User: What shape does this take?
Amino acid sequence: MLPTPVSMDITEFRKRGKEMVDYIADYFEQLEERQVYPDVEPGYLRPLIPDSAPQEPESFEDVLKDVERIIMPGVTHWHSPYFFAYFPTASSFPALLADVLSGGIGCIGFSWASSPACTELETVMLDWLGKMINLPEEFLAGKDGEGGGVIQGSASEATLITLLAARTKTIRRVQSENPELTAADIMSKLVAYASDQAHSSVERAGLIGGVKIKNIPSDDKFTVCGSALKKVLHEDRAAGLIPFFFCATLGTTPCCSFDRLLELGPICNKENIWMHIDAAYAGSAFICPEFRHLLNGVEFADSFNFNPHKWLLVNFDCSAMW
Assistant: This one.
């Protein structure tokens, strides 16, 4: 099974494109009739498809038949009205059409020169989004600002990127104060922190970054307060460790709790600790003025991230990071 016949020309593309739109529209209209969670076992797919790619292309009709016969029985239908797991994933017809346009243009935006419009549109749209949730001016690019957002694939990527940035910044700072120390000497002493309610991706970032990571115990409301962080920092500094990164969570995975930024932020700033805010789940809510108080303290943060592909009608993957 090939995703598209290799012989497709522009005329057939017009025809098949319209058929694909009809297929997707039919999918949404009949979605509630499909079983939400697939009744398959791990490894179900391999016996149903050839061991290697076919030498000759298949017809578009046969490909679509295979989608229904082989793929759909193994799909978890996130947009089903009966799906209540994980988080409310987003999608919309305008977003689907935008994906078609983006795929059709097919530009690679790894630098301004590789596609100016792609680079500049991302910068401007992330400013729009930052203003919508009332981020501080320092996070925005504006016309000549030092901030500016970037779209990542997931909040997990954003956490890893910010931890690596914090690691590099701390190593440089410590080396400037202690030239005799090597990067390896400093790395062995670095320690990062997150709530015991934080997403597993924070721990994973620590493993990939090669640094120690510790969980700060949450209180009876599942939130981290300033006193809990202070206690651990005092113990670790006394042990000769170098605290360098704290990941605060707004909308934790287990229960949507909110760490106390107004207590944690000043501590991180005073202690020279990079504070990253993971608002992957709840960040979209800050567009509503009545929820913005939960964002108070963001001005102390070094970086901030949330997922428009949760709640904001944007297809996965779209994780906004400033």
